[in-house]
Design brief:
It is a single chain. By secondary structure, the protein is an alpha+beta fold. The chain has 4 domains: about 130 residues, no CATH class; about 90 residues, no CATH class; about 90 residues, no CATH class; about 150 residues, no CATH class. The protein is built from 19 helices and 12 strands. A 6-stranded mixed beta sheet has the order 6-7-8-9-10-11, with helices on both faces. The protein has a two-stranded antiparallel ribbon with strand order 1-2. Strand 9, helix 18 and strand 10 form a beta-alpha-beta unit. It is elongated.
Length: about 550
C-alpha cells in the first residue's frame, strides 16, 4: 500500500493528468509535491493520497483510486486502465485522442486475450505483451491533401503527379534499399524456385522513382556525402543514372556553417529594485557564508540574496552532506550547552560519550525525516556521523588527561552581530553569524568553527590580506569574520590571547587548526590582534563596497 515518491510525482505532474485536473487541483498537486519534498517522504501511502484528494472533484478521486488502489486480478487492472483512458479522452486534443485510441485498442486486445485464455498471471507478463503490441501500432498523421507540404513515402506517390518534389535520403542503401531482405529463405533458393528477390524490389522502386519525376517542374534531390551510421555516403544509382541521361542538372554542395558559440559570462546590472533589496539586506545582516558566496560567485549571491531563490526541497533518499553536517553540529551543541560557563573535566567528557550516539540518532530523525537509517548508504553515513562525534570527544578526553590543560566553554552556537560603516555607503551595514563554539584553553580564547569536510592547515594560512578573494582563503575569511563579530559584540579588549580556527572532522589528528598569519617558512603566528582584524576588515569593506556600488555589475566568474 505504499508507492515510490518519484512514481507518484511523475504521475501527478504528467501533462495528460494536468489537462484533467482543474485549476484548483493544480494547486493541490503543487502543495502535495512540495509536502513530499519537505517531509522527505520516500514512500507514500494510499492513505496519504486519499487524504490529499479529499477536497477534489469526484473525477479526480476516481482517477487516483483507479491508479493507486490494489487490484484483485489482471482483468480488474485492465478495466481500470480503460477507465482512465475514458476519463482522459474528454480533455485532450484531436492528435492526443488518436494516441488514446491506439492505447485503448491495445488494452482492449489484451483484455480479450485475458478473458479468452487467462494467460496473464502477473503484471510482468502483461507488460511484455503490451510492449510487443504497442511496438506494432502506427499513428496516421493526416493533413490537408490539397494544400501545403505533403510528407509521403515512395509507395504513396503512385499514380500521383506533382509540380515540386523534394526527395530526401537518396543514398545507396536507402533508395533502393539494396540486398537487405527480411526473409528466412536464402537468396539462392529464391533464384532456384523463381521467387522474387531484392532485384525485383529494386526494379519496382526504380519504376516509381522515374515515374514520380517525369512530370515535375522542380525537382530537388538530397543525399548525404558523409559516411555515418545511416549510410555509406554514396549517392543512389538512380541519381547517377539521371546524371548520365540529362545535362540540365545543377549540383550544389551544402554544408552548415558551424560557428562555435562563445558562452558569455552572466552579467546582472543593479537597478533600483536590486539596490532596494541590498539595502534591506544591510538591515537584516550579511553573514560570513553570504560574503564568501559573493567572492566565489557573484551571480550565486544575486540569486540567493536578491532574487531570494530557495533550493528546491528534494526527497533525500540518501543522506545529503549538508544534513550530515547539521546533525553533527546539533549533537555537539546539545552535548556542550549544559556546560557553558564551566570548566570541562575528563570525567564530564567521558559522561558525554555515553549519550552521544542517542543524540546523533535523535538529530538524524529530526533532519532526515521519514528516512531509513538501518540499511545501505544511509547506515554508513549514520555510522560516519557517530564516528565523527565519538572521535571528537576522544580528542577532548586526551586533551584533558592529567589536568595539564584547563578548558572552559564560553559559548556554543551563539549568534553574533555588529554594524560597520563603509565610506561610499550612506547607511550602516550589519554583519551577523552563528559561531559554533567559543572556549578558553589555558587562558587562550578560541573561536571555533566545526567542518565535517576536509580542511588542512594550508587552507588557513593568511600571510597577507590583499589576496583574500582567492578561493583557498574562503574558509579563513569565515573564521576571521566570526572572530571580528565576537570582539565587537562582546567589546573584547584583547586582554587574553585570541585565536580562531577550525576543527575538521576528516582531519581530527591535526587537532585545532588556527588561522596562521606567518610568512612562508616562519614560525606559526596564530594570535589575533586588534591591528590584524583592522587590516582584515579593510579588505572586507572593499568587497562589501563592490556589492553596494550601483555601477558595478554582478558578473559570473570565468
Amino acid at each position: 500500500n505504499e508507492f515510490y515518491h518519484k512514481d507518484v510525482t511523475r504521475f501527478l505532474k504528467h501533462q495528460s493528468m494536468h489537462q484533467l485536473f482543474s485549476k484548483n487541483t493544480h494547486s493541490f498537486v503543487a502543495s502535495f509535491v512540495e509536502e513530499i519534498g519537505v517531509e522527505n517522504y520516500i514512500f507514500i501511502s494510499k492513505k496519504q493520497l486519499e487524504s490529499a484528494v479529499m477536497k477534489e472533484s469526484a473525477e479526480v478521486k476516481e482517477l487516483i483510486s483507479s491508479i493507486f488502489n490494489a487490484y484483485s486480478s489482471i482483468n480488474d487492472f485492465l478495466e481500470r486502465i480503460l477507465k482512465v483512458i475514458d476519463l482522459l479522452k474528454e480533455e485532450v486534443t484531436g492528435l492526443e485522442k488518436e494516441y488514446l485510441f491506439r492505447f485503448y485498442t491495445v488494452f482492449t486486445q489484451l483484455k480479450t486475450l485475458q478473458k479468452t485464455y487467462e494467460y496473464f498471471t502477473d503484471l510482468k507478463t502483461l507488460s511484455l505483451f503490451f510492449k510487443q503490441l504497442i511496438a506494432s501500432e502506427t499513428l496516421s498523421f493526416q493533413g490537408e491533401p490539397l494544400r501545403g507540404l505533403q510528407l509521403m513515402g515512395m509507395l504513396e506517390t503512385r499514380v500521383l503527379d506533382f509540380e515540386n518534389i523534394i526527395l530526401t535520403s537518396t543514398n545507396e542503401g536507402v533508395l533502393p534499399a539494396g540486398s537487405q531482405q527480411n526473409s528466412f529463405i536464402p537468396f539462392d533458393v529464391k533464384l532456384a524456385f523463381g521467387l522474387p528477390t531484392y532485384r525485383e524490389k529494386d526494379a519496382i522502386f526504380s519504376y516509381h522513382f522515374f515515374r514520380l519525376i517525369q512530370r515535375a517542374k522542380n525537382i530537388f534531390i538530397l543525399y548525404n556525402t558523409e559516411h555515418d551510421a545511416f549510410g555509406s555516403g554514396e549517392k543512389s544509382r538512380f541519381v547517377t543514372q539521371l546524371e548520365m541521361m540529362r545535362s540540365d542538372i545543377v549540383h550544389k554542395n551544402i554544408a552548415p556553417k558551424v560557428i562555435p558559440s562563445k558562452t558569455a559570462l552572466k552579467e546582472v546590472s543593479k537597478n533600483e529594485a536590486t539596490l532596494a533589496r541590498l539595502k534591506e539586506l544591510a538591515i537584516k545582516g550579511i553573514s560570513p557564508s553570504a560574503l564568501t558566496n559573493y567572492l566565489h560567485n557573484p551571480i550565486s549571491f544575486y540569486k540567493q540574496k536578491i532574487l531570494k531563490i530557495k533550493e528546491y526541497d528534494e526527497v533525500e533518499e540518501t543522506v545529503a552532506f549538508n544534513t550530515l553536517g547539521t546533525v553533527v553540529h546539533e549533537a555537539l551543541d546539545e552535548l556542550y550547552t549544559p556546560f557553558v560557563g564551566k570548566f570541562l573535566s575528563q570525567a564530564i567528557v567521558t559522561e558525554m560519550q555515553k549519550g552521544a550516539k542517542d543524540l546523533v540518532t535523535k538529530h538524524f530523525k529530526l533532519q532526515f525525516k521519514n528516512g531509513d537509517l538501518t540499511t545501505g548508504k544511509n547506515r554508513l553515513i549514520f555510522e560516519v556521523a557517530n564516528r565523527f562525534v565519538a572521535n571528537f570527544l576522544s580528542k577532548e578526553v586526551d586533551l584533558l588527561k592529567g589536568d595539564k590543560n584547563q578548558l572552559k566553554i564560553i559559548a556554543t552556537e551563539e549568534n553574533l552581530a555588529a554594524e560597520i560603516k563603509i565610506e561610499g555607503i550612506d547607511f550602516p551595514i550589519k554583519l551577523h553569524g552563528q559561531v559554533d563554539r567559543v572556549d578558553e584553553l589555558n587562558g587562550v580564547l578560541r573561536i571555533i568553527d566545526y567542518k565535517t569536510g576536509m580542511v588542512s592547515a594550508t587552507n588557513l594560512r593568511v600571510p597577507e590580506f590583499e589576496n583574500l578573494r582567492d578561493e583557498k582563503h574562503l574558509k579563513a575569511i569565515q573564521v576571521l569574520l566570526y572572530a571580528y563579530l565576537f570582539t565587537k559584540s562582546k567589546n573584547y579588549n584583547f586582554s587574553k590571547p585570541l585565536e580562531a580556527g577550525i576543527y575538521s572532522f576528516k582531519n581530527l589528528n591535526s587537532g585545532f587548526l588556527g588561522i596562521d598569519f606567518a610568512q612562508a617558512r616562519k614560525a606559526p603566528d596564530t594570535r589575533i590582534t586588534a591591528e590584524k582584524l583592522d587590516a582584515f576588515m579593510v579588505e572586507i569593506k572593499k568587497y562589501i563596497l563592490e556589492i553596494y556600488t550601483p555601477t558595478l555589475d554582478f558578473i559570473e566568474p570565468a
